[in-house]
TrEMBL record:
Family annotation (Gene3D superfamilies): Carbon-nitrogen hydrolase (3.60.110.10)
Domain CN hydrolase: 1-242
PANTHER family, alphabetized: DEAMINATED GLUTATHIONE AMIDASE (PTHR23088:SF27), NITRILASE-RELATED (PTHR23088)
Gene Ontology molecular function: hydrolase activity, acting on carbon-nitrogen (but not peptide) bonds, in linear amides
KW Hydrolase (keyword) present: yes
InterPro entries noted in UniProt: C-N_Hydrolase, C-N_Hydrolase_sf, Nit1/2_C-N_Hydrolase
Keywords: Hydrolase
One Pfam family named in its UniProt record: CN_hydrolase
Domain of life assignment: Bacteria
Protein name according to UniProt: Carbon-nitrogen hydrolase family protein
Length: 275
């Protein structure tokens, strides 16, 4: 998707893609991070989104999951957070009966000065989550993550060791960092965990000249890219053979080989030498 700063047209576009995916035979449909609204300005975003009660995105996705009889992941939406002036960046998994099966609040905040000149301070807008989330799908355990989380491998290892066989990474990866790291990070997380990694992504140009990388990916447990959505909005389909999870983990059973070790002592910071 290429979400903008108005909720209604974003949900209209998402619904069209979800219906297209369902018609093509999809049992599990996923959308990117910030599906209902991608608004860079904190004040405008906070004014635009409600809490869970009456949130238009939740109502739309519950209706579609129920009507189409599918599992449906709302990659994430901003939502008013309880007891905090900041918002939550929250991912929702809907069951085929329209109920919310699981919620996950993004843990790692993207506070970065990107070399393309853009500055991001998610922690000023969003309250970080504190709980890793593992739930069940008909095809296995599902670990839920969001975007910048993908750079923190320990989260993915713990999800896999707790029972995840599929991990979701809905994202709005920047164009600059995506070109350098997106494919490599997602393949690494799949290989390390022996999981399928499903990463629906934002693409194109958004408000305030923000650009996202696109390339929604489906990665197999051995690291192969099964599907790449490219740089334009649309639907990407893939079939998951869950037997490949057991195969990958049998070939390299690294999830069973953790060992404790003593952490290194931090190096002393050296004074810069004179030229």
């Amino acid at each position: 998707m290429t979400s903008g700063r108005e909720i209604a047209p974003n949900l209209e576009a998402a619904e069209a893609y979800i219906r297209e995916a369902s018609k093509a035979g999809a049992d599990f449909v996923l959308t990117p991070e910030n599906t209902p609204i991608l608004e860079p300005r904190h004040d405008r975003l906070k004014a635009a989104v409600p809490g869970e009660d009456g949130h238009p995105a939740l109502e739309t996705f519950a209706r579609l999951a129920r009507e189409l009889d599918i599992w449906l992941l709302l990659g994430s939406t901003a939502v008013q957070a309880e007891g905090d002036e900041r918002l939550a960046n929250r991912s929702y998994l809907f069951a085929p009966d329209g109920s919310v099966k699981a919620r996950y609040d993004k843990i790692h905040m993207f506070d970065v000065n990107v070399p393309d000149g853009q500055t991001y301070r998610e922690s000023a807008t969003f309250r970080p989550g504190e709980q890793a989330v593992l739930t069940e799908l008909p095809w296995g355990g599902l670990g839920m993550t969001i975007c910048y989380d993908v750079r923190f491998a320990a989260l993915y290892r713990q999800l896999a060791q707790a029972g995840a066989s599929i991990i979701t990474v809905p994202a709005a990866f920047t164009q600059f960092t995506g070109q350098a790291h997106w494919h490599t990070l997602l393949r690494a997380r799949a290989i390390e965990t022996g999981c399928f990694v499903l990463a629906p992504a934002q693409c194109g140009e958004h408000a305030e000249e923000r650009r996202t990388y696109g390339h929604s990916l489906v990665v197999a447990p051995w690291g192969e890219v099964l599907a790449d959505g490219g740089e334009a909005p649309g639907v990407t389909l893939a079939e998951l053979d869950t037997a490949r999870i057991d195969d990958a983990r049998a070939w390299v059973p690294a999830l069973q080989h953790d060992r404790g070790f003593t952490a290194p002592q931090p190096l002393k910071q050296r004074e810069p030498e004179e030229a």
